[in-house]
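Annex B, item 7. Sequence and structure tokens for protein A, then protein B.
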Amino acid sequence: MLTYPDIDPVIVSIGPLAIRWYGLMYVFGFGVAWWLARKRSADPRSTWQPQDIDDLIFYSALGVILGGRLGWVLFYGFERLSDDPWMLIRIWEGGMSFHGGMLGVVIAATVLAWRQKRHPADIFDFLTPLPCIGIFAGRVANFINGELWGKPTQSALGFIVDPSGLHPVQTAEAKRLCTRFGIDPCVLHVHASQLYEGVLEGLVLFAIMWTFTAKPRPRLAPAGLFLVCYGIFRFVVEFVRVPDESRGYLLFGWVTMGQILSAPMILVGAYLMILAYRRRTPSGNWQAMVLPSQQPSN
């Protein structure tokens, strides 16, 4: 098995100011998304201009941060809000929901579509490959924070987590898991579910979406594929991830909140792809051209 590395969640601290890996990964993710969007907009076939990209990333960042935090509080931490209302703004401590962030981006993108006079579906399609590297970076930050661990395992891919000598944040999370699983002395052997998610929801999903959107696709096909792939990846990893302590298993002794939120993504995504390929409406992200299926036969 692998040994969990002793990485301080705080990169540097100057008085009350602390720069954390968690926040840095968000900055990195938005920066990469901006660069990728600029790169895609540079394609001569693209209808996107560089100034459009700046607005897109700004609106998306607001949607991710506000939606992600509100979603986490609603789905996972609502009970704590009355006792500690300031938790809502302490994002640096962790606690962001991908599903809430995605809903926030949908709302933000819809507002941007109205301002830029674009079809909302075109913005959704254009966005699909952009957050993936940021998702990977965020899961690495979860790993560094020592949170969202997987279930106990003896697999060679598992990690040995010894809370002695770790940062207080990591130690506290490890001890909570030891208490939940009745492990004494407290030395964990667990799946690194954060990294599983980072690879699947981040790197693999990016490869799929960047390749798929490299040429014109029917409107809503990229959005549908993103929902299907992310939903499947998240649903599968939830089998080895420890469910949130405040929720536990919600159905049948094995269904988690993450799976309940991901299942509709798969269904809606499949529906959108079927609808997209039946209608074959050209995407507004590309200069007007004929899709292969619409070319006249000789």
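Protein B:
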Amino acid sequence: MRVPPARVLFPEEDRAEILARIDQALASGQLTLGPLGRDLEADFARRHHTDHAIAVSSGTSALEIILRAIGVEGREVLVPANTFFATAAAAAHAGAQVKFVDCNPQTMAFDLDDVAAQLGPQTAAVIAVHIGGLISPDVPALAELCAQHGVELVEDAAHAHGSALDGRAAGTFGIAGAFSFYPTKVMAGGEGGMIVTNNATIDEEARTYRDQGKGSFLSNFHTRLGANWRMSEPHAAIVHAQLRRLDEFIAARQNLAKRYDASIESIGLQPFIIPANAHCNYYKYIAFLPDGVDRADVKQAMRERFDIGLSGEVYDTPLHRQPVFETFHSGDANRELPNAEWLCARHICLPLYPSLSETDADYVIESLATVLAERGATA
């Protein structure tokens, strides 16, 4: 494909370093919970100005561990309907009753008024999701709202490596934040996740939960119902190399986004506005289709006629419409979440990654302009 929807970048010198670090782990025989993971944790905590960072097996496990540590079992967790399955699944697996809330069309994240309306005596936590790498300007107000109600704010920062709001890093607005290193992310580790927190209790609980609930690595004395949520040393080596490139990756994404920004409205798309006080990593470049234009048709034309893959939506089906969550919709299957449904149905994501050339970015715009014009879209 001339322009694939995503492409993972490991420069040659990084690959050599990663292999050397993995060889060290192989030589030592310590393949999990070793020095590579500890070095990664220290540097990740330093990068995010947090006291603690705990490496785990995935972004999903990072969320579940946080929720278990704060004690959501038997209580409600509010989850925005526009997010990935794992956000709600982590809460369900932690024993919570999932309650979906509507989303803000300007940020694609939670709708603050709907969160306020859904808070109740059984609410244990609210999860804020930084869709596409944007930290909603409403996050500080959400943190204040949660504090007023004695509710914990947890951040799903799977999209938000290096993102910030008013100079404050993703993952630091609530009691803890969860990151993912899945291959499509800004930092690709193959697999893996990270918890960041300033809370010493969560740090201790997370280290217990991630290792089968054991009190220490060398014991078989289990104090929590944990699981195998460890990050391996080879994965830590890969993630560490990506962490050192993070600012470079984000700068490349931001430059390409500016190139898209210059043309996006002229071809008939509505832009996704990034506020001036937000440092967005552009995990996704999001735009909105005009009414009446079929997204699947546009994606098919771009793929078959121009050899361009439009990247996966964030997201195409709101969670309260997913079959697995039909019984989770706060016991009220009739409660409408119209903003989430509109957002999921009307947006597209353009290819955006550090190795995308400016020539190919221009080709994406030119091709998309042709496809949209043929379907009656106008600026």
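Comment on protein B: The mean pLDDT is 96.
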